[in-house]
Amino acid sequence: MSRIAKVAGAVTSLVASLVATVSAAQAGCECLTELPLALRQSDLYDEAEGCLYYENAGVRYCYNISYGLNECAAHDEGLDPFCSSFFPPDFCEQSFCFVDSSCSIEPYASSYFPGYGLYYSYKTCGSINSFVAWTGDDVPRSMTDLIALVEAYALSAKQALEENLQQVRDLVDSGNTEECSLDKACNGCTGCEDNDCWEQTINTRRTNVVLNSELERQASSAELEELSCMASYISSTYRRTASKEYNDDGRVAYQYYGSQSTGAMVQWPASGFCSDSFDARQRPWYASAASGPKDVVLVIDVSGSMSGERIKLAKEAAKAVLGTLTWVDHANIVLFNNEIEAKYSSELVTTTEAEIASMRRWVNDNVRASGGTEFEAPLRFAGELLAGSTACSKAILYMTDGEDSTGFDSSTLNSVPSDAVIFSYALGEGAHHAPLQEMACSTGGIFYPVDSENVLADVMASYYEYYVQLADPCAVNWIRYSDAITGAELLGGCSAIFDTLSSETVLQGVNCVDLNIIVEPLQLKTCSNNAYDNFVEMVRSQAATCRAQSSVSGCALKKLRAKVGSSSVCASDSILGTCDGNTNIAFNATSCPAPNSNRFSDIILQDCNAEYESCTAQYYDPPSAAVSLKFSLLCFALVSALLL
After folding, report:
1. Rounded mean pLDDT of 617-642?
2. Listed GO cellular component terms (predicted)?
3. What is the distance between the alpha carbons of residues 463 and 453, in angstroms, rounded to a whole number?
4. Domain with 546 in it
């Protein structure tokens, strides 16, 4: 057995040991002894071969014909496509069985066999929420147990999505995507009901997709078909995870996947949220997994030529960039015309949620067009800001629509630290390209000619694709932020999804699992020794840790520039030759080591308030005495910040 398999096996055993199971279903919710007639008469049922076929994204998997029947068992253990990986989600090891729809112990409609009236339940078999189970046993638990659980869920979803990408593309190429569906939230939320704790309508039995009409219009038919198949695929693992861990409709928690090609978001639970401006790629949780910690100075031309529609676009672009900054980043904004017109601060500021909100207001109040254009002063100031920075990655985003009226002096670039890169943006046909190209080429950055002015925000906010080249393809990145609806706290583990089939590093999307699926952070705050606050500080410190490299170079950088266009290619790129080799950092991502939760100090969870209440007096109905639990959970008020 390989070292990786051994480590992964150990993690699987650890996660499996966290939850107790029983062998018999509870009275009144017994296991079915046969499948519904309609399913037995379908082509998914083959008695001669002994197969009950589970079909996902056009691929059929043969399960034992008695799958889910007769007894409580870990029916999914070792099965493709979700439970055969190095990081099988916890539900793979848990007992469940198919039950009658009248079962009162939280039956879920089967996502594997939809449309056949088939339901399953973990709770009838004693498989319950992990945190509840921990409260009922005598084994000391710690924050690292929670970390291992969440990261295993995140990595198993990542691996499943990456490994099945080729199958999804084969379906799209062959035109066989009939089984894939795109349940868009803007078309209405199927089965959604009002939930006072969530302050919106939700359906915890389903997933749906947030995709605004403009992004849908811009996407190709192939991209939309791929999205629909990926959404159908990930829906199964989200719903199974929720049916295992989510035990209270009052506790707000999410699982979500953002698509790089479309900006759409697949979300559990399904909700009625619909937005004409939502773009998953411009959310902090997305950027946290894609880009890592960074210091960013945004330099914006507000000269007279920027009046009218252009100044409006500049505001939108600035706010789109702000939307990509996380709790471990630092930033500043500089406005210039024939001088430095205004600056948000005299120094870099930590981009907390409150600071980002303040910066957005400042952009609205201060971005106005007037005066001439002089490039050097704002560039020197940006360089001085970054010279005092100790950040891992440093970037200047420099946008103008004009020509330096004083003549650009190349020596100004000497004020930019050698470890900082410039992403320069020429807005419209009137912008002078030469100095902007020089800024980018001299610092290892990228020049972007933006001829179609209405895409300025999207182009500028995509700067973090550069930093994707530096990512650890196996990392789970933690992010903490608040919901825009309720102000509630969210702590999510996010992993970047890559195209492992490409010879270049291509980000497919970002997948996140909230800790809130298992337990509410506010309840963890009731534990002794400041356990949760200490944990959050450790997570923040880890998120701020520098990656092995701070800048992109060589063929990887040449490919990024060439992807933008010929005017973005630098003279220095020519010495690199054709760059036909594989530069994909995720090429061997299937060999990721098991998640190492021990990178955090062990913080014991003790004296936690088991009767914590933050929403309404909705009590969790405990399972039978066979599970030996005398514990009731109250509902909690957390809504994720992923919506806005």
Report:
1. 30
2. voltage-gated calcium channel complex
3. 17
4. 144-284+470-643
Residue 620 and residue 247: Cα distance in Å, rounded?
7
Inter-residue contact 421 to 394 (CB < 8 Å): yes
Cα–Cα distance between 337 and 470 in angstroms, integer? Answer: 34
Residue 285 host element (H or E): helix 284-291
Asked if residue 162 has pLDDT above 70, the reply is yes
% residues pLDDT > 70 (the chain): 87
As a whole number of Å, the end-to-end CA separation of the chain is 46
Query: Which residue, of 67, 102, 127, is where some domain finishes?
Result: 127
pLDDT, tens digit, 9 for 90 and up, residues 349-363 = 999 989 999 999 999
Separation of alpha carbons 161 and 55, rounded Å? 15
Strand, coil or helix: what is 191?
Answer: coil
Q: What is the dihedral of CA 334, 340, 344, 346, to 10 degrees?
A: 110
**In sequence order, what are the residues at sequence separation of 6 or more whose Cβ sits closer than 8 angstroms to the Cβ of residue 199?**
485, 486, 639
Segment 113-119 shows an average pLDDT of 91
Q: What token pair was written down for 266? A: 């697949």
pLDDT of residue 22: 42
The answer to whether residues 355 and 497 belong to one domain is no
Task: Please indicate, yes or no, if residue 34 is contained in any of the structural domains.
Answer: yes
> What is the H or E stretch that residue 341 is in?
strand 340-343
Judge whether 556 and 470 are in contact, CB under 8 Å.
no
Q: How far apart are CA 307 and CA 311, in angstroms?
A: 5
d(CA 201, CA 252): 12
The amino acid at 449? P
Q: Round to whole Å and give the CA distance between 135 and 326.
A: 33
CB count, 10 Å around CB of 237? 25
Most confident segment among 333-342, 476-485, 525-534: 333-342
Query: Cα separation of 276 and 78, whole Å?
Result: 42
DSSP one-letter code for 41: T
Q: Is residue 355 part of a domain?
A: yes
Q: 410 and 487, same structural domain?
A: no
CA angle 245, 510, 605 (to 5 degrees): 40
Between the CA atoms of 598, 602, 606 and 609, what dihedral angle is there, to the nearest 10 degrees? Answer: -60
Question: What number of residues does the chain have?
Answer: 644
Q: Is 171 among the domain residues?
A: yes
- Dump the DSSP string for 122-155: SGGGT---HHHHHHHSSS-EEHHHHHHHHHHHHH
What tokens does 55 get? 């079909």
Nearest to 437 by CA among 628, 568, 339: 568
From its phi and psi, is residue 529 left (phi > 0), alpha (psi between -120 and 50) or beta?
left
Residue 402 lies in a domain: yes
The whole model's pTM is what? 0.81
Cα→Cα distances 273→188, 477, 606, 643, Å: 9, 25, 37, 8
Cα 234 from Cα 237, distance rounded (Å) = 5
CATH number for the domain spanning 307: value is 3.40.50.410
Total structural domains within the chain: 3
Q: Verify that 239 and 157 share a domain, yes or no.
A: yes
CB burial class (10 A; 0-12, 13-18, 19+) of residue 511?
buried
Cα separation of 486 and 57, whole Å? 36
Note whether 515 and 452 are same-domain residues. Answer: no
Last residue of a domain, one of 414, 443, 468: 468
Residues 373, 459 within the same domain: yes
Q: Distance of CA 91 to CAs 36, 180, 238, 318, 408, Å?
A: 24, 24, 11, 42, 61
